Amino acid sequence: MTVLGSGEATDLVKAKSVLLEAGGGRHPHGPEKLRTALVDLHDFWLSSRCATLGLDGDGSGAALVAVGALGRRELCPHSDLDLVLLHDDRTGVDTLAERLWYPLWDAGIGLDHAVRTPGQAVQVATTDLRTALGLLEVRHVAGDGALSAKVRDAARKAWRAGIRNRFDELAETAAERRRRNGDVAHRIEPDLKNGHGGLRDVALIDALATAQLVDRPSAEVAAARALLLDVRTELHRRAGRARDVLRAQDADDIAAVLDVGDRFDLARALSGAARAVAFAVEVGLRQARAGLPRRGLAALRRAPVRRPLGSGVVGHGGEVGLARDASAAKDPALALRVAAAAARTGLPISAGTLTRLADTAPELRAPWPRAALTELLALLGTGQAMVGVIESLDRTGLWGRLFPEWGAVRDLPPRDRTHVWTVDRHLVEVCAQAARLTTRIARPDLLLLGALIHDIGKGRGGDHSEVGESAARRIGERLGLRDGDVVLLAAMVRHHLLLPHTATRRDPEDPATVARVLDTLREAVAEGGRPEQDVAVLVELLDALAEADSLGTGPGVWSPWRRTLIQGLSGRLLTALDGRPFVEPGPPDPSSAGMAPAVKADGNPQVTFSTGDDVATVAVALPDRRGALSAVAGVLALHSLQVHTAEITVERGVAVQTFAVTPRFGGLPEPALVRGDLVRVLDGALELASALARKERDYAPAAPEVERTAPPRVLWFDDEVTGGVVLELRGTDRIGLLHHVTAALERSGSDVRWARVETLGASVVDAFGLTGAPDRTVRREAERAVLAVAAGRAGEVRRGAAGPPSGVSR
Prior knowledge:
Elements: H1 9-21, H2 30-52, E1 62-67, H3 68-71, E2 81-87, H4 93-106, E3 111-116, H5 118-127, H6 129-135, E4 139-143, H7 145-181, H8 199-210, H9 219-239, H10 248-258, H11 263-291, E5 307-310, E6 313-316, E7 319-322, H12 334-345, H13 351-360, H14 370-380, H15 385-395, H16 398-402, H17 423-434, H18 444-453, H19 464-479, H20 483-494, H21 498-505, H22 511-525, H23 531-551, H24 560-576, H25 595-602, E8 606-611, E9 616-623, H26 628-638, E10 641-651, E11 654-663, H27 671-683, H28 688-698, E12 713-719, E13 724-732, H29 737-747, E14 752-760, E15 763-770, H30 776-790
Parallel strand pairs: 2-3
Antiparallel strand pairs: 1-2, 1-4, 5-6, 6-7, 8-9, 9-11, 10-11, 10-14, 12-13, 13-15, 14-15
């Protein structure tokens, strides 16, 4: 019988083979116990070999230490051995090293080795990041324990002292690894070691903790580490060699060994684990960068200024946080306002803010306050910038609190190989794509919501479109949508595959195909009360959703062939409909009753406020004159009032303007102050443009706003009632935009007779009724001026609340 430790590494190989074959291909005590047994086996052989060579205790002048997987006691069946022979300049060290390494090489055992003095080891670590990270995990195996401890302590001290100079390299190495290997959470065949959220990222968190820049890994990260190691251990055993990429054909067997169901269950568990690690790494790198020791002139700089980004929201130190007096318990929309500010500015939400919101933010009661829905739409309208923000909300439990239905799709792996994301990430990616299309349709709010939940029925059994329809109704009612909008939202989810399936499986030019689709959609919206108009809106929504869904699925899905078929079918559907009559504003709001006679009597503007449960109504009546609309919009902006909707009518020489508003900061201003500023603007005593510019500069965001996702668009309609025309602007909300758009129309010579303004999260749909039938040149000039303002090319003008930017600030 061969005695382990007799000096032959072939004994080690045989003993390992017996260990791996125990239990008929699986270790009787699971992969964790197998790794422990493998570490103990290698430690025993190495220590025995060292004893045979005379390297067997303190004072021997040399020590064998393990780094890497063996050093961390995470040795998988076919992991290489990373060993360092330390010495204090003793003689014969080269011969000693050869007698250690050659048996391992001869037995075919993978070995990464080095022979160094303590000084050399620490010196190499100062220039080689991989060596430095390895020495942080050093573990004594045999020989002089004091020598091993000396190197361990010196390496950690040097790491802490030099982290400021090495941090950029550390962060860039992690970023490059992610670019090269992708995300473990979303790859069909993930790299468990090198992918983003994999084992190297866990080691990175340990390294930051050793530098005393972040706390030790949380329990969630520790559990994720254990799962990743267990899967990697079984992958090694099954492959019979070192493997880090989990192939689909191996996943079912590994899932069975780990008792986690099938390969889809394993993929879901790995996705959750990897996302926990990835989130911890991203937060850890931010915290570490902020905690780096400051030296020289940097140590003398003043602390970053807290800059307001919204009510209760500030930017500080490159992150979005809460104002000192902010309270989630008192402000139901606070968590969503923080998220919208983060996505809009491109700044991450601070870890402390996420924790505080997770601990204090209550569940929103149904129906949601209007402010909460507004901030949700503002978040969704930011496009790709929202992906990371929603991920951070989801990792801390806030997103699931807003959408309880999300649990069924969280980390749910796709069943179709064309999908590159888990179902929950797919929903967010589709919503980001939809944000690019919001100016193509009349209801950008419903497009964003429909994109976010179109596959919410997956993971529950049954047809996901039918299951999703019921969920969409519950969600729409909980969000506080109008009854007709709930019907449209549910119809979007129920029929989000209708256009793609019909266009690619039927003849889209056949009138019978068109009639069949229209009958289906009419039935879907029949309870809404306006079938023809709602069907046309629904066709637009389904067309845009089909494009966003394809783009958010994977590369190549939205092919020219698919685009031509789907858009061709939607065009025929719209042509077959009678068209949507443009809906003009109704009669003046009752709150403005009696104001017009007062204006006629003395010629002075009248301003009244009335408050409701969620928003306030500002009614303004003043003599009809050029510049009146832009003056009122600008004055509301000066007082930091967000305009959600507005209706403006002109009757018998008096313009009556009614605005639904909320204060962006503080409370509502006194009506007398608003009226006084309006009078000063109309009299020329207050220069509105410069006053707005000053407020905008005062509340400039801490970071440049992210690039807008959808270009503005202008549409023209005929106004059969007045014989004039209607200009409809679809664009992305900007602070002060309403004032500057109306001013641009006035400068172009257009006479605005009525207006209907609506802010839908980060999107605006503003209609202006213009008198007469302006010729093509006048229309082109008005359109050019409005588009320039909406695109921010006129001095980066902004909408409404001249305070800090919000997704909805007019």
